[in-house]
Amino acid sequence: MANAEDMEDEVSVAPPKKKGGRGMMFAGIAALLLLGGGGYLYTRGHGAQAAVTPPKAPELFLPLDPAFVVNFQDQDATRYLQVGVTVMTHDPAAVQAMKDSDPVIRNALVMLFSSQTYVGLSDINGKKKLQAEALDAVRKIVADKIGKPDVDAIYFTSFVMQ
C-alpha cells in the first residue's frame, strides 16, 4: 500500500486546474452566437421595414414642345432667347394636369422668359435662378388644377441666347 507521503507526491505532481478553461470558451462562443443572431435579426427587421415602404413611382417626363422663343431688351439691341423645357414628375395626374393646362403654362413661361435680361442670364447662377422661377410658376398652375404642386423638376433641354 502507498503511504501518505507517496499520495501527497502524486497529488502535487498533478497539474493545477485552469480556472474557466472550457467554461470561458463556451461563454465566448455563446456570446458570438448571440451577437451574430442579434445582428441578423436587427438587419432582417430593417429589411422588413424597407419592404413595407412603397417603391417610388417612376419619373415621368413631359417635354413642352415646341421650344420657347422670346425676345428681350438689352441695352444695345433686341435679343432672342430660345429655351427647350422638359418637366419631371412622379405623378400621372400632374402630367395630365400639365397637358390640360398647356396654354396657361406656356403663357406663364413666355412672360417669365421675356422679362429676363441678357446680363442676368449670362452666367450659370442666372440660369439656375430662372429655372427655379419657372419651376415655381409651373407648380402653382398644377396646384391650382389638382390641389398639390406635384412637379419635381424643370430641365432646360436647350438654351440659346442671341
Automatic annotation (TrEMBL):
InterPro entries from the UniProt entry: FliL
Keyword Lipid biosynthesis among UniProt keywords: no
Keywords noted in UniProt: Cell inner membrane, Cell membrane, Chemotaxis, Flagellar rotation, Membrane, Transmembrane, Transmembrane helix
Membrane topology: Single-pass membrane protein
Residue stretches spanning the membrane: 24-42
Compartments it resides in: Cell inner membrane; Cell membrane
Coiled coil location: none
Signal peptide residue numbers: none
Stored Pfam families: FliL
Domain of life the protein comes from: Bacteria
Family in the record: Belongs to the FliL family.
Functional note: Controls the rotational direction of flagella during chemotaxis.
Protein name in the entry: Flagellar protein FliL
